[in-house]
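re the bet — no i am not wrong, look at it urself. input seq straight from the record:
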Amino acid sequence: VQLQAYGGGLVQAGGSLRLSCAASGRTFSNYIMGWFRRAPGKEREFVAAISRNGSMTGYADSVKGRFTISRDNAKNTLSIQMNSLKPEDTAVYYCATRSSWTGSSWVKSQAARRASEYGYWGQGTQVTVSS
C-alpha cells in the first residue's frame, strides 16, 4: 500500500488549502481513511476520518466546521478542504488508512483518533499558516 500526500504550502491566516492523498496497492474503497497532523514539538494528532463510501465522517473538535474530509473512490484519492486556517493549524499533515476492513460508524469512535489504529501512512505534506 502506498499513500502520497500533496497540496501543502504557505497560506495566510483565514485562507484555504486543499490537501489530497493518492492511494495505490489495494482496493481503495474497502478501507477507512484518515488525516493526522504533527506540529513542531508536538505529538501526532487526529484531524479527520472518513468511512469507506464517504457516508460517515469524524473530526477533531479543533477543526470541526472548518475542515471537510472527502474521498473519490473512482480516483483512489482522499482529500481534505481546509478553510479559515489558523496559525495553530501549522503542521505536517499525513494521510493514513486502516489495515483491515472496518464498519462505517468506527470513524466516530475514540479509536479512530488513535494513530496506532492505522496501519499505513503517507509521507506527509507541510502546511504553514502565517499570522
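see?? The mean pLDDT is 96. told u. also The longest strand covers residues 17-24. so pay up
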